[in-house]
């Protein structure tokens, strides 16, 4: 089973590593889709700048406070996900900044590339593994120690052994 997992992971890392070389957007595809949805809804929200880093964002259901320097919104979605919420998108788009600049670095293309730069190396089958006798010592099974207390006399319910 471990060899199957090893083979699967080798293939997965190799395929994704090749794919990422041709991918040129600053964030992953799923995050790009999330940002596209949020930016489409952002026009329904009105943001007012306070003169520093904060914005008062009001819209149909409620109003929120967005801080672009700290990357926070009072709806807390930005802090939890690391992706600007629709309120933050309204502020960012109003400034003319790219939304991808405000996404957590965990979703960046550079992080994806660094994930797949390392690789798994192929391993031989079990018959080609070195024997412990060839290493210079014989590995013995661990010594068993009798547990303290009186041994159990009744069998466990549903157990395989009878005493
Ligand atoms: Zn928000």
From TrEMBL:
GO terms for molecular function: zinc ion binding. InterPro entries: Znf_PMZ, Znf_SWIM. PROSITE patterns: ZF_SWIM. The keyword Transferase does not apply. Residues 134-163 are annotated as: Disordered. Residues 143-157 have a biased composition (Basic residues). Keywords: Metal-binding, Zinc, Zinc-finger. Residues 64-96 form the SWIM-type domain. This is SWIM-type domain-containing protein.
């Amino acid at each position: 089973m471990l060899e199957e997992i090893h083979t699967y992971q080798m293939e997965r890392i190799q395929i994704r590593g090749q794919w990422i070389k041709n991918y040129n957007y600053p964030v992953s595809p799923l995050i790009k889709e999330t940002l596209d949805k949020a930016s489409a809804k952002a026009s329904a929200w009105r943001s007012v700048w306070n003169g520093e880093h904060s914005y008062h964002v009001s819209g149909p259901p409620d109003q929120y406070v967005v801080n672009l320097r700290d990357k926070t919104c009072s709806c807390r979605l930005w802090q939890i996900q690391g992706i600007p919420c629709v309120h933050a998108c309204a502020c960012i788009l109003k400034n003319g900044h790219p939304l991808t600049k405000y996404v957590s670095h965990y979703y960046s293309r550079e992080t994806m590339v660094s994930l797949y730069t390392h690789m798994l190396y192929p391993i031989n089958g079990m018959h080609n593994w070195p024997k412990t006798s060839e290493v210079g010592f014989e590995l013995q099974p661990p010594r068993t120690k009798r547990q303290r207390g009186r041994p159990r006399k009744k069998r466990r319910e549903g157990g395989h052994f009878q005493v």
